[in-house]
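Lab channel / #folding
Pinned by the channel admin:
"Please post every new chain as: sequence first, then the structure tokens as a reply. Keep commentary short and put observations after the output so the thread stays searchable."

First post following the new format, from NK:
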Amino acid sequence: MMDRLRAGFAFAGLGCVTLALMACQAPGKPGPGPEVPRPSHVLDFATLYQQNCAACHGVDGHRGIAVSLANPVYLALAGKDVLINYTAKGGPGNLMPPFARSYGGTLTDQQIDVLVDGMISRWGHPGILAGSTPPPYAAAGKGDPAAGHTDFEQYCARCHGGDAAHAAAPALNKTVQAGPVTNPDYLALISDQSLRSTIIAGMPDEGMPDWRGFGPKPLTDHEVTDIVTWLATLRQTTPGQTNAK
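Reply from TO:
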């Protein structure tokens, strides 16, 4: 009698196990999917760029609200060390946040290397400077705003208008044009370094030449520095409000 009871319990237990396994594999019940890597383990450039850069710098590095990273002149001007530094620490005085964990971001140093190396390998062009030497990425000294105003009128006004308030291209001061880059607060939101980088590297997506195409001769370091210094005097002291001066 006891043997029969034990056999019955064993059979019942086996039936429960079978039913449990069948329930785990029931139609419509999700099974084990592919293993999802931890965020810190993602080392694919396309994924990292889409998740961290595309919203500001544009899909494939073009036509974003921030500098176009697919501009080979900009990549050559900045160089790998500057790109790593800005990606890791962010840009002081502008809207670029830090991405390195050591500066409050979410990316590892290896992931930042993958991003920068990917930008250079995909969008860089080793011969883009064609033997010419651009003004340095960062200004070496202070500029002269009066000279900058004169240089702006000579090199930039034909597209941006006199006193940076006109029209064929996005205006840099007050304007009636629509769009975020023509907003009177534009200069309050962009840093001096961003202005300098744009003047030197140009904006090929928008038809703006680099430092070599503004006039009969390339812009010099002093001229770029002076133009940026003058533009800085036009900034709104309080974004969203009209300057009293």
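NK: The chain has two domains: 39-123, 145-232.
TO: also worth noting, Confidence is low (pLDDT under 50) at residues 5-21, 174-183, 241-245.
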